[in-house]
Every structure is written in C-alpha cells, then in structure tokens.
Design goal:
It is a single chain. With 243 residues, the protein is an alpha/beta fold. Helix content is 39%, strand content 22%. It is built from eight helices and 13 strands. Strands 2-1-3-4-5 form a five-stranded parallel beta sheet, with helices on both faces. A five-stranded antiparallel beta sheet has the order 9-8-7-6-13, with no helix packed on it. It has a three-stranded antiparallel beta sheet with strand order 10-12-11. Strand 8 and strand 9 form a beta hairpin. Helix 6 crosses helix 7 and helix 6 packs across helix 8.
Amino acid sequence: MSSLGKSILLVDDDQEIRDLLDIYLTRAGFQVSTVSDGAGFRKALEHTPCDLLILDVMLPDEDGFSLCRWVRQHPRCAQTPIIMLTASSDETDRVLGLELGADDYLGKPFSPRELQARIKALLRRVQFASAGAGHEIMAFEGWRLNTVTHRLFHTDGEEVILSGADFALLKLFLDHPQQILDRDTIGNATRGRDLMPLDRIVDMAVSRLRQRLRDTEKPPRLIRTIRGSGYQLAAEVTTGHGH
C-alpha cells in the first residue's frame, strides 16, 4: 500500500533520532510530526489524530508505557497502531509494552529501513482489517463484536476497548473458529510481518486478548493452547447484522 498521506507522530527525547527519522520517513512519503516529551505528545495527539504512533520508552517527563496506556484508553485513538522503541537488551520493556497494547517493538539501535518496514506492515494490517470487515456482528460465548466499529460488548453490558492489534487477533480467531492457528499465521495476520526467532509477540498478544475476554481459567477455556501447534478458539461463532 502507498504510504503517501499517512501521518506519523514520533516521541523521542534524542534530537538526533528525531531529525533522522523525520527526514527518512518524510522521504518515504509519510507526514511526520516529532515531539521530545510526553507533554508534547499528548498535546499533539489531542489536536491532530495520526495513522501511527512511535513511542520511545525512556522520556524526560514520563515513560512511553504511560503514554501507551493513555492512548489505549482514549476513545479517539484507541485503535491507532503503536510501535515502541525499547532498549534492545531489555525483554521486560518489550513484554510490558505489548501487555499495555503496543502493536510492535523495535530495539535500539535500529535501522530506519527496518522501522519503515514495520510501519508499512502495520498500516497494511489496518487496511486489510478495514477492508475485510465482512459481517457486522460476530457473536460468541456471551460476547458481541461489531466488526465495523471494532466495539466489543459482553451480555452483561460491559464494553471492552480493543486496540488495533486486539481487534485483528480476535477477528482472525472468529473467522477460523475451532481451527488451530500456528504462530506464524497469527503473526502475519496481526502484525503484517514474519516473526523473529524467539519472538514472544504472538504469545503476549494472545495472553492480552484472553484477559480482555475474561478467559483466565487454568488452562484457558476459550482460547486454547495447542502445545507444539498454536492456538484454537473453542467457541461457536454466529454472524449477522445489528447495532
């Protein structure tokens, strides 16, 4: 897909990185805005919605995790894709970022080319999810997902806010109920890219979705782990139209 016109907001306190990525991504056809701290990020996003966000973990006033949490709780941008820039050696940063709703992560130092590839992959996923919405309502195990608005409701009235990654993963399971989906299939469908060796991003995404769906029994009842194979949605899914 074309990157022309797609807007990116980057927050990083390193001016050299901001300037480098501004030049590189602008040349690639993106509209780039950069800020140096959390306050600037919040102000920028309140005024101008973006197609994708890049958050550095270490910032002078607040960390990227709190910004990620804030974005996911903000109705207007809850589904905006987020890439987090983390210390390459710190697995904890990556896991926490994914738990809070980041869509992908990149360890520093990184190449701008790799970041651009991750950006394009996530934007392709967003476009694919929007184009393939299909049935408006998908119902399963006491839940109702509106595939147009991405809103998820339980029969008790609770609404769960889904990030773009949450929605993509749930929609994949609902499109393939009772089928075993391997990690590579899930990675390609939800991240738009192949997984790296030892990449825990799929397992963290499934764990996060289980929390959203109250699937917290041991072992999980709704999204089953099929050892050595992948994951399976153990539910009947009905589709239709509604509010």
